[in-house]
Structures are given as structure tokens and as C-alpha cells.
Amino acid sequence: MEQKLLLYNTLSRTKELFKPLHEGRVGMYVCGPTVYGDAHLGHARPAITFDLLFRYLRYLGYKVRYVRNITDVGHLEHDADEGEDKIAKKARLEQLEPMEVAQYYTNRFHEAMASLNVLPPSIEPLASGHIIEQEQLVKEILDNGYAYESNGSIYFDVEKYNKKYHYGILSHRNLEDVINHSRELAGVGEKRNQVDFALWKKADPQHIMHWPSPWSEGFPGWHCECTAMGRKYLGRHFDIHGGGMDLVFPHHECEIAQAVASQGDQMVRYWLHNNMITINGQKMGKSLNNFITLQQFFTGSHDSLEEAYSPMTIRFFILQAHYRSTVDFSNDALKASRKGYQRLMDCVAALERIEPVNDGAVTTEYADSLQQKCHDAMNDDLNSPILISHLFDAGRIVNQIADKQATITPDALAALKKIYHTFVFDILGLKAEAEGSSRREEAFGQAVDLLLQIRSQAKANKDWATSDKIRDQLAAYGFEVKDTKDGATWKLNK
């Protein structure tokens, strides 16, 4: 059955039926990290959100080209056109080459994403590897009259652009409001207007990362990279552009302006944005110094953490809220997520223990109904919390069957197994964790040891019937029990 996927388009502020530009194919660009520090919980949210979308689009049968960039140059402090490059500053403080900093934190980012079971994108371009494409973009905007040179730097002329097009179409701001806000900032300096943003910046003598250009030795503005790389790998028009809500303005607004000013129309059909992770109601971020890195979550090495939380607990924590809602961090919320994740895993395990019967009360009709509910949830703007609630509801039925309080037909059992495998593992991207497995193995071993202690006591009491029964039953389950002078030993013959 063909699925009708609705996605919330920030541009229109409505849910729209997703129709790709090219049948069967989807082009998707998502803003990746600026690699000057370890990934934190705020980075995990867009990564998991768009991993969910990537997985679901592929499940629907689309061939997806997913591009997620690495920002390794051009992102200045405070997201403004002044200040030091964030990576260069880190390099200076640690007495390293900027590319050494970028490579180190890129590797760390990849490790964190692998732990969270986030699939790698189809293409992961570096901003520093596409200077030529960014210079070409700047040239096109200059040639079309929507930029100007000032002391070797190139700035986008927002006011001139706004006379023909609407600057603020994505963030739903008008230029007057933006100008009034900008007046609160320091002097204009090289710019005609404070709202104008840099397309190319002339490098100061102390600036480490710079390249030759027709205008000056310098570096591209932060906003240029995504427009240039999106167009290079996805074409002049593509389907989806995603990122965090904090990027709507100015970053994505500037991207739209750059695209229109260079090619005459917009590049992107659907703009998707995930909401923020907050701590005590405040956005989590490096600039606010209130972030907790993913590695700190995994190890529990942060003052705000009462204990360590596994990668799948973090993934479930993010998935159990809709991507457009805020999620406030707390230890209680993470502990609840761990329980929820384990409930799903226990349900999957219970399905493997069930013995079906031909005249079972639970039939394929129930499985079909569950599958439709799961599809409906995902088709409604990726509503992962509703999907999870349907899986929990079905889990109660599964547990009843596993506890012999209900019965199920073979076909229905096979269908339920497929549904849980598809939605829990393939789409939600959860997986069984070694930590949980090792705990179960430990508990399992302790239970066998307890049985052998009871058997030993039975032998001491000359209760041969109980002793033999325990030995024979364990043997039937695949355990080999050996009696030694120091007591009984056991192993599981697999």
C-alpha cells in the first residue's frame, strides 16, 4: 500500500504531502556540526531526527541522496561576521593546526554517531574542500547585483534584495524588524547596513585559515557553504533541507537569499527543523557553556549526571518526543527513557519465546491493524512518540501471549515479529545493547548457580530424586553439569 507522508514545512508553516521532484528519488541536505569540540546532546537531536527521516524514506522505497556537511572553516564566533573563526581559535589555544582540530573532532563526532546508531550520510562534504564552489556562488551574486565589495570583503545587499524578493520568507520576519533589531548592535563598519551578511571575508594578518580569491586573500562566509555544496551534490533544486530550529534565522534565511540571488529562484521545496534540547528551559549549546557531551552521558562523567546513560537510552529519549517539540533534560527523564527502551527490547525478546497455535485468538487481523497504526504515526510528520505508544500497547498483548494468558496463530506471530523488527530496528534505529546483554548473562549465570546450590543441598540430604531432576532438566535445556570434588560446574552447550 502506497504511503502518504505528511511533513511540516517551515516555509509554509503547514503539514504538506511529500512529493519528490523526481519520482522514486529524494535529495536531502542537513546542516552538520562545526567541528571544534565534542558532540553534545544538542547535536544528537538533529542527527537522530534526520536519521529517522532518512530511514523512513528508504523504507518507503525511495533512493535517497543524503548530504550532511562538516563545517571546518568560516564559522565565526557568535555566528556573526566579526570575531575569530571557532576552529582557528581552538587551534590557537591548543597550539595545533586548524585542520588537526577539525579532523580530531570530526572523528569524535563519527564515533558518537555510530554509538547512537545514526547511519552515515550518502555524502559528507567539508566546507574547506569546496572553496572554489563558494567563490563561484559569490561571483554569481555579485554579477546579479545583490552583493558589493568593501575593503576586500563581499557582503550581501539585503535591502536591495528585499526590494524584489522577501528577505525573511522562512523566519516570517520583515526587514524593518530585522533592521530595528540590528541597530542595537555596534557600528556598521564595512557594511552598508548592519543586516548585510558576509559572503567573503578578507583575512586579517593573524587569521590562520585563508585562500586566494578575486577580491582578497580570505575565507567564505558561514552561510555560503551549504548553498554551494547543496547545489553541487543535489542540483539547483532539491527536496528537503533540514537542521535545528536555531538555524532558521539567520543561516537558512541567508541560504534562501543566496540561492535566489544567484539563480533566480529557491533551491529547496521542504524546510524541516527540529526543536531544541533545553536545560532548565534554556537551549543547550557550546556558546552558553551549558552543554553535556555525548561521551559524558555514556560515562556519567558530568556533575549534572546521576549516572551513566547508554547510547540507546539517549536515542530513545530523543525519539519519544516529537521532533518539533522541545525536550528538557533531566535525570528522571533519562531514567524513564531507559525503562521505555528496555520495555521495547523485552517485548522483542518475548516474541521469540512464544509458541503459536493454529486456532490462536490473536490473528493477522490484529497484526494488520497494528501495522497500519504504525504507518499512520510515521506518515503524520514522523510522529515517533505515537509510534512508540502503539508498540507499547501491542507489547501488553505480546506479554499476555508469552505468559500463556492468550494465544496467537503462526501467521500472526510471524507478522508481529516483522512489524517489531521493521519499526523498532529499521525505522526507529534502536538496537540491543551489549550492556543489557551482559547484565542478562550475569543474572542468567547466577540463576544456574543457585539451582546447583539447591542440588548440592539436596545431595547432602540424600534427596536423590530432587538432585537428579535438577541435573536432568538442566541437561534438557542444554546445560552440561559436572560433579567435581570442589562442587558442581556447568557450561552451556550451544
Topology:
Elements: E1 6-9, E2 14-17, E3 25-30, H1 41-59, E4 63-68, H2 86-94, H3 98-115, H4 131-143, E5 147-150, E6 153-156, H5 158-164, H6 175-182, E7 198-202, E8 218-220, H7 224-234, E9 238-244, H8 248-263, E10 268-274, E11 277-279, E12 282-283, H9 294-299, H10 311-319, E13 327-328, H11 331-353, H12 364-379, H13 384-402, H14 410-427, H15 434-460, H16 464-476, E14 479-484, E15 487-492
Parallel strand pairs: 3-4, 3-9, 9-10, 11-13
Antiparallel strand pairs: 1-2, 5-6, 6-7, 7-8, 11-12, 14-15
Helix pairs in contact: 1-10, 2-3, 4-7, 4-8, 10-11, 11-13, 11-14, 12-13, 12-14, 15-16
Poorly predicted ranges (pLDDT <50, ≥5 residues)?
183-187
- What is the distance, rounded to the nearest whole angstrom, between the alpha carbons of the first and last residues? 41 Å
What is the top-level CATH class of the largest domain? Alpha Beta
- Write the CATH architecture name of the largest domain: 3-Layer(aba) Sandwich
Overall radius of gyration: 28 Å
Output the strand order for the largest sheet.
4-3-9-10
CATH topology of the largest domain: Rossmann fold
Q: Please tell me what the overall shape is.
A: elongated
Superfamily (CATH H level) name of the largest domain = HUPs
Number of strands: 15
Please give the domain count. Answer: 3
The pLDDT mean sits at 91
- Discrete helix count: 16
> Which secondary-structure class do the elements indicate?
alpha/beta
> Which percent band covers the strand fraction?
5-15%
Helix content percent band: 40-55%
